[in-house]
Design brief:
Layout (H helix, E strand, L loop, with lengths): L1 E4 L5 H7 L6 E4 L2 H9 L4 E3 L16 E4 L18 H12 L5 H5 L12 H9 L3 E6 L4 H13 L3 E8 L7 E2 L1 E8 L11 E2 L12 E2 L3 H5 L26 H12 L3 E4 L20 E2 L8 E4 L5 E3 L19 E3 L3 E3 L2 H7 L12 H10 L3 H12 L6 H6 L1
Parallel strand pairs: 1-2, 1-4, 2-3, 4-5, 7-12, 9-10
Antiparallel strand pairs: 5-8, 6-8, 11-13, 13-16, 14-15
Helix pairs in contact: 1-11, 3-6
């Protein structure tokens, strides 16, 4: 059995499918649980901190965890930063068989902070064959603490930072990763893609990074863009960019008139950083649906759905078609954000649009997950076509 703690909408599970594996997820959020169920992934809706490990004793092969990271988050009020020593203390105590969570939680400024220590309770009790953990880059010191105790228990470990773009994800998402195994030596997974590929001594070459435009079909004017649905409702969403809207976007692209601005693109000097979607992956997509396409020179705006039209320009088309409006922006849909995370186009995200974006932004990119688990298990990553044939 493989157990996925804080499983969310199941990015890890989709990655496991590329290795021919399945898992069971523990998750408290109702919308994420509905998403997991609709996608065919077994889920236990629960509070991971309260759920007992005993039912899994002697039955667990792998443990996966992407716990909340409030104590390391640089977003918002950053109140949890003061809790970092308490999280480290909780990990230390749990690794030595002492459960001090109640006392330490009483001292935390953010009650979610100690969730980052929860995997150690499961590791101490269950000692799985292999372990994979993921979080934001700033959590790396905590992963190294975990690795220290795992090494003392006979595990081979690797902890470091990986860029999802190096594994075929059309997004430059960097994450702190911990890999451990009791059965064989582990190291970082070999990348499959590179920003600037070059032939090695054997004449082999990695693939170039997957651009955002290519992933979404925006970079091809000679082939149709497949229809995808946004999910999250009883009937799903409309095609993200209906014919009129897509044609306008492609025309603007051919003029070199559009780039990506995100809510993190503001430089210290007040200027803005931009990304060319035709040549590069998307910036890391977060749970905040703030990314938007901005035309570099005056042109009409295409709003992908009526619910995300710019303020004052509500789409009144009864059929749900996109419309032209001002100012010159167009936002990506939930389905497109999911593709940028390397989910399959028809992945059934449930909940409100905000909830759906939150699930997408918090998920582990399935392609990255597959390569991380492959490094932990030694099982090669299979292409979706290979799995279908099998």
């Amino acid at each position: 059995m493989i157990v996925d703690l804080f499983a969310g909408p199941r990015g890890w599970s989709e990655g496991l499918r590329l290795l021919g594996l399945t898992d069971i997820g523990l998750e408290w959020d109702t919308a994420a649980c509905r998403t997991a169920h609709a996608a065919g992934h077994p889920v236990i809706q629960c509070d991971v901190a309260q759920y007992p490990t005993a039912p899994f004793a002697g039955r667990i092969r792998g443990l996966i965890a992407s716990p909340p990271c409030q104590a390391w988050s640089r977003a918002g009020k950053r109140g949890g930063l003061a809790d970092q020593p308490l999280v480290h203390q909780a990990v230390h105590d749990l690794a030595h068989g002492r459960d001090t969570r109640t006392e330490l939680l009483a001292q935390c400024k953010d009650e979610r902070s100690l969730l980052a220590a929860e995997p150690m309770r499961w590791l101490y009790d269950l000692r799985p064959e292999w372990v994979c953990m993921e979080e934001v880059v700033d959590v790396l010191p905590l992963w190294k603490q975990y690795a220290l105790y795992l090494q003392q228990w006979g595990y081979s470990t690797w902890a470091g930072v990986l860029n999802a773009a190096d594994y075929g994800v059309p997004q430059t998402r960097q994450r702190a990763i911990l890999i451990a195994s009791r059965t064989h030596g582990v190291t970082a997974p070999d990348p499959t893609h590179a920003k600037n590929p070059a032939e090695d001594l054997f004449g082999e070459c990695l693939k170039p990074w997957v651009s955002m435009a290519d992933a979404l079909g925006w970079g091809a004017t000679d082939r149709p863009t497949p229809t995808v649905t946004a999910g999250g409702g009883k009937t799903g969403g409309a095609e993200p960019f209906p014919t009129q809207a897509r044609n306008a976007l492609l025309a603007a692209q051919e003029r070199g008139a559009w780039v990506l601005h995100t809510n993190r693109d503001q430089r210290a000097d007040g200027s803005r950083q931009t990304t060319d979607p035709h040549n590069a992956p998307a910036p890391a997509f977060t749970s905040k649906a703030g990314g938007q396409w901005v035309l570099k020179r005056p042109a009409t705006t295409v709003c992908a759905t009526d619910r995300i039209s710019p303020p004052g320009h509500r789409n009144r088309d009864a059929g749900g078609e996109s419309q032209f409006a001002s100012p010159d922006t167009v936002r990506i849909t939930v389905a497109e954000a999911a593709i940028l995370q390397s989910f399959r186009p028809d992945y059934p995200f449930f909940g409100t649009k905000t909830k759906a974006f939150e699930q997408v932004g918090n998920a582990v990119p399935p392609l990255l997950a597959a390569h991380v688990v492959s490094a932990a298990t030694g099982i090669p990553v299979q292409a979706p076509a290979d799995l279908a044939a099998a």
